[in-house]
Every structure is written in C-alpha cells, then in structure tokens.
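Q: Could you fold this chain for me?
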Amino acid sequence: MAEEKKRTRRANGESAIYLGKDGRWHARVPMGYKDDGTPYRRHLTRPTRKELVDEVRRLEKQRDEGSARQPGKPWTVAKWLEHWVENIAKPVVSENTYAGYEVAVRVHLVPGIGKHRIDRLEPEHLESLYRRMQSAGSKAGTAHQAHRTARTALGEAVRRGHAAKNAAALAKPPRMEEDENEVEPYSVDEVQSLLLEVNKRRNSARWMLALALGLRQGETLGLRWSDVDLANEYLKLRRNRLRPKYEHGCGEAAPCGRKAGYCPARVQVRRETKNTKSRAGRRAVPLPGPLVVMLRSHREAQARERAAAGNLWTESEYVFTKRLGGPLSPNTDYHDWKRLLEDAGVRDGRLHDARHTAGTVLMLLGVPDRVIDQIMGWEPGGAARMRARYLHVTDPMLKEAARKIERAIWGARENPTVDKDQDNEP
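A: Sure. Below is the predicted structure, expressed as structure tokens.
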C-alpha cells in the first residue's frame, strides 16, 4: 500500500493516479492547454481505483476524440447561441440564412432553453420546447426551423469541445404534416388567362419569365441588362435580389417613432444583390421567341420612362425597375403578383407556384431531365429530389399514359365505346 501511495514521475501527457490522504483515489488528467498557454488538467476522485481508472479512460477518450469540455466557465445555451449566430455564422452565411438563424435564436431558442448549461442540455429539453411552441400556436415548420438552427449551432459547439454531444441531433422534431393544400400548378388555360392580363401591365415580361421559365423571384429581380442577350435569345443568371433591411437614420435625439422600414431617414443596411453561390444557379437560360419580343418591348418602354423622368430617374441597370428606376422591392413584387391573379380571375396561389408551373410544363412537353435541371437551376446531386418536388403529374399526362398502356396491351385498335371527342381532351 505504501508503494501505491507514492507518486511517481510520469511522461508528458500521461494521467497521474494516486491514493490520497483522505482514503480516496485521485487522478490528474492532462486535457490540453488554457487560452493563456498554460497546461490544463482535470482532477477526478473516486472511492476505488477501478472506478477511477474507468473514468480516466473515458475522459482520455473524449480528449483524444476532441469531444471533451474545454477549460473555463461552461457556456450556457443562451450565451453560446448568441455568440454563435453573431460571430461564427453571420460572417460565413448569406443574409437570408443569417436572418432565419437570428430569429430562431432570439424568439424561440434563447427564451425556451437558454438557461441550461450547454454541456448538460438533453434532447428532451428541445422536444419539450417544440411542444410548447406548437401549443402556443407555432406551426410545425417554425419548430423545424428552430430545430435546424439548434442542430447547426450545437454541432459547432461539439466540434470546438464545449459539449460532448449534440442534443439537437438526438432530439426528434415534430412531424411535418403533408400540406392539405398541395401545390397544384396552373393549367395551360390559366397561364393563358394570366398572359392576357400581363400584357396590360407594366413589367409584363417579369411574370412570363416566372411562368414560362420558372425563374425564382430573386433571380428575376436581380437581372440586369448585361445579363440579357436578345440577339442570341438567352439570358445569364448569376445573382439574386435580396430583401431590403433598414435601420433608423433619424437619431436618438429626435426619434421618428416608426418602424425602421418606415423611418423618413431610413438607412439601407443590406446589400441589394448577392452572387448565386451554386454552380447550378449560375446558368444560361434560353428565351422563347415571344419572350424575346416582350423583353425588346420592355426595354423600349423603360427607355421612354427614363427620358420622361429626367433627373428623377435612379440609374441601376436592372431589367425590372420602379417607375423612377432603382430595383423593385420583393415585397412590392409579391403584392403585384396577388393583384395579377385577382385581375386575371385565376385562383390564388404563391408566387413560387409559378415555378412549379414552369417545371411541370417542361416535363409535359417532353423536355429531357438534364435540360429541365439546367433551366430550373438544380444541382446534379439533388436534381432527382427537386424534380419529385416540383414536377407534378397532371390529368392529361395520366390519360396519355393510359393510352400508351392500351396500345401496348390491346394493340392500336380504337375502343369503339370511347367517345373520340372526349378521348382527345388535353
């Protein structure tokens, strides 16, 4: 026993295990270095040597895997999330992604689980938060956004050694129910009704780019004339228009009392556009002949507006602008879409439904998948999943499939009981 009590000199990085004067077994486990460069060791104590050795081996494994808690005061979930969203996520993600993270952290995660220590957070704490959110009226999609944000933030905490596990990766988010109002793309008749109404409006080509080619809102509003080649009938997509974000410019001495977006001296704090980050998003899209004609007419109309506005015109090089130049606001564009549907007598729908419509029409016309992927801007690795989400099987397609089955099994003979007019319906 005397030999066991005696401490022996050990190699650097090796844990020291010894029997203390209190009759308990103790260990000093090297865990790395503190911020100031001095060595950091964890002290463990157990009543028996076997228990202590087991705990030392577990801690050494965490250290070697990089999952052990680092020295210093443990982070609370609130402090970590606030640090992560502002100092780690914000510099490297897009403005829109940051905005989603920031809302999830500020509105849901910090009030809901912020007081827990990050190394003691359990999956059940998150699952309880998701249930409370839904009981308070949040949709399952909102809880999913909070879940994804927590999973990303806590994953970074694990990589940096602030927590041994990612509680959000283990938690079960609420089930996403299938949308009762499943997206139904607009029919050819509805698109034609929209076309009749579009031709009466300013910026008419803007809507046909969405309905015919499936361009996203940001892609269309970020389009500049240098991206459009009417002679060769194609356009290049390489940037997205961002939703504006404002701060007050009125000053604390004389606050206007309004929201920042309505402040008379408001200051734009978000850039107008960002470059498309994916290779698939940066693409060339062919222009159908009628769209080329519409864009030529639109350019001439814009030149007349510029001349009439004179010094009031805001030069911006955007294809689609406000009446006095300058880029269109995504919010204004959304409300214009809603008015277009109402004036055309077409059922209500999201602006993004125009993209579903364009993809489905391309499939209906028999355009090869690879070409559809190019036009829609889908990455090769996820293109099949995106086609399943966006391309909808319509009644005419089902009828054509039935005709093909009939010809293959029963031959080309017409069924005399089928009314030809009905059989030829699109």
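A (continued): The longest helix spans residues 289-309.
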